[in-house]
Amino acid sequence: MGELTSLFLDVISYQMNEALQLIFLAAAGVLIAILFTRESLHLILKRLAPSSLRVNMIVYLVDALIISLPIGFLVIALYKHLGATQPAMPMSSAPDWIVGVACVVVGDFIGYWRHRLEHSRFLWSAHSLHHSDEQMTWFTTYRIHPLNRATTAIIDNCALLLVGFPIWAIALAAVIRRFYGMFVHMNRPWTLGILGRIFVSPAMHRWHHVKSGPGMSRNYAQIFSIYDRMFGTYYVPGPCYEQLGVEGIDQNAYLLQMILPFRGVFKLFKGIDNLKSSSSIEKV
Questions:
Q1: Do residues 98 and 214 touch, judged by C-beta distance below 8 A?
Q2: Are 154 and 78 in contact (CB under 8 A)?
Q3: Which among 188, 187, 156, 149 has a CA at the least distance from the CA of 171?
Q4: Whether 75 contacts 174, CB under 8 Å
Q5: Could you read off the pLDDT tens digit of each residue along the chain, which spans 284 residues?
Q6: HSE-up of 185 (CA within 13 Å, CB side)?
Q7: Helices in the chain by DSSP H: which ranges?
Q8: In angstroms, rounded to a whole number, what is the distance separating the alpha carbons of residues 133 and 186?
Q9: Which DSSP category does 221 fall into?
Q10: DSSP 51
Q11: What residues contact residue 241 under an 8 Å CB cut-off, 6+ apart?
């Protein structure tokens, strides 16, 4: 009971700090836009309230108030189970900064392949919620289905623990990936120029979110574009102004998108029931 209370308080504290960070980032974004762009204040404020904001806020609040606690228990269980038998890293004697950088690089490699798996028929029904946002902004980063959150936590944390990275490095990599993920989801046409050959740009990730076209099955990395270059999934013909979203899915249909991953389970049980009914008829 004490562990549950402690975890609950930790989750509440984390979510409060994160909410304050989001408010600060939104305020800083408005200030930067006012100072360094030629857009009118009306247009700047309009960007803060895209048509998908209502669903994005619902997803964020449900995650913060309900989903974070079981996900926290899941991550702690993984750390306890795998951390006890954690292998020694080849670079275990290296300076902390090298271990931290290595964890970010390896973590993005793992995330690249996990992201490709999310676009397979096995996980797409949960991942599609993230892609259904037709006016992608940095806040789209938080538009994640609970099942998608769980698979991400399991795959990323298990893989990094099995490689042998310490918990502090895994936590550091998670923070860096989260903030960089917010950057690449920004509604900006930036390609990063020559740096785009190494790092993922907002334009590169925007091509990944297009509703139709070759970008749909490209650009899976979150930080390092070199992985997409290595595995033939890089696609950045320039800034992206194409329509975003998912064909056949209403971006504001929250409940429908929540139950979408479970439709396969329902069909499975329905198929079993139909099979039983057919067997009973044949016996009669």
A1: no
A2: yes
A3: 156
A4: no
A5: 555 566 566 666 766 777 777 777 777 766 766 666 666 766 766 677 788 999 999 999 999 888 888 888 888 888 877 766 666 666 667 888 999 999 999 999 999 999 999 999 889 999 999 999 999 999 999 999 999 999 999 999 999 988 889 889 999 999 999 999 999 999 888 999 999 999 999 999 999 999 999 888 899 999 999 999 999 999 999 999 999 999 999 999 999 999 999 876 665 555 444 444 444 444 43
A6: 20
A7: 2-36, 41-47, 53-62, 68-83, 96-118, 124-131, 146-163, 167-184, 202-208, 226-230, 254-259, 263-283
A8: 13
A9: -
A10: T
A11: 189
Which letter, b or e, does each residue of 177-205 get, where b requires 16 or more Cβ atoms within 10 Å of its Cβ? beebbbbbbbebebbbeeebeebbbbbbb
Q: Which amino acid, one-letter code, is at 116?
A: R
> What pTM was computed for the model?
0.84
Distance CA 138, CA 180 (A): 10
Distances (CA, A) of 229 to 105, 110, 238: 15, 15, 16
Q: What is the DSSP letter of 56?
A: H
Q: State the residue for tokens 């929540």.
A: 258
From CA 258, how far away is CA 262, in angstroms rounded?
8
Q: Is 165 helix (H, G, I), strand (E, B) or coil?
A: coil
Q: Which two tokens stand for residue 93?
A: 């004697």
Q: Which residues pair with 244 in a beta bridge?
A: 210
* AA identity, residue 251: Q
Q: Are 63 and 146 in contact (CB under 8 A)?
A: yes
Q: How far is CA 157 from CA 65, 77, 171, 175, in A?
A: 22, 11, 9, 13
Report the residue count for the chain: 284
